[in-house]
Amino acid sequence: MKTLSVLALIGVHFQMVGCGSGDLNRSLVSSNGEHKKVVVGDSCVSSDPSKVCLGIHFVSYQDSQGQSVARLEQVETIVRTLNELWKECAIGFQVEEYQSVDPSQYGLSFGEESQQEVDKIRQTFATIPNELLAVTTGPWGTSVNAWTAMPGEGPYGAVMEASVVSYGDGIIYAHEFGHYLGLDHVSDQSGLMNATIYPTSMKLDSSECDLARSTAKSYWPAMFRY
């Protein structure tokens, strides 16, 4: 089952910044999409053996002006949100590869059409076998904002559209990595895995934590960081 996610526009003001990616961004990632190894934000590696730390390959599309949809400083915020929401499960994430790409160089679309290309997107960028994949495209213009394949139903990779970058400081990324870790949707509006994601949808219960940790160990041991 490939899951879809919908964000709730209640009390949220989008700040879609389409300019000023900055020298920091350009110094780390070349305009032709070459990716370089960086750790964006804090590392989740811990001396506590009970904690799970997973590596991520983060891909951001560039708009027609060559500006990244998700700039490095925004990715840092997303990583903080990921780790804050998942810490009760003793699961953490760190972005190890940040790639800013012109999708047209890969035969891919920037905006609405990219929602129909999710498997092609995954196949294009899932080139690092020991990192989970997150790709942010241009805007889709629909109520659906993200697609993630559940474990056992690849190709893998969480594919999201531009509006999720600023929504709840990256809460939808945390939701989508829940699908990556085997969690399905719940009916509790306060749950992180609710199909419609509100800014207050943050809860993960103990059974979800147990399943996520079990899935990580079963399906994604290559992504573990020690």
Model description:
This protein has 226 residues and is an alpha/beta fold. Helix content is 24%, strand content 20%. It has five helices and eight strands, in the order E-H-E-E-H-E-H-E-E-E-H-E-H. The chain has an eight-stranded mixed β-sheet, with helices on both faces. Helix 2 (72-86) links the parallel strand 3 (52-61) and strand 4 (91-101). The chain is globular, with a radius of gyration of 16 Å.
Secondary structure elements and their pairing?
Blueprint: E1 2-7, H1 22-28, E2 36-40, E3 52-61, H2 72-86, E4 91-101, H3 118-125, E5 132-136, E6 146-149, E7 158-160, H4 171-180, E8 196-197, H5 206-219
Parallel strand pairs: 1-8, 3-4, 3-5, 5-7
Antiparallel strand pairs: 1-6, 2-4, 6-7
State the separation between the terminal residues, measured CA to CA.
31 Å
Strand and helix order? EHEEHEHEEEHEH
Tell me the CATH architecture.
3-Layer(aba) Sandwich
- Report the radius of gyration as a whole number of Å: 16 Å
What is the count of DSSP helices, taking H or I runs of 4+ residues?
5
Specify the CATH homologous superfamily: Collagenase (Catalytic Domain)
Please, how many domains?
A: 1
Within the CATH hierarchy, at the fold level, what is the topology? Collagenase (Catalytic Domain)
Low-confidence stretches: 8-36
Shape: globular
Level-1 CATH class name = Alpha Beta
Our estimate of the beta-strand percent is 15-25%
Query: What is the helix content?
Result: 10-25%
Q: What kind of assembly state do the chains in view correspond to?
A: single chain
Give the biggest sheet: 8 strands, mixed
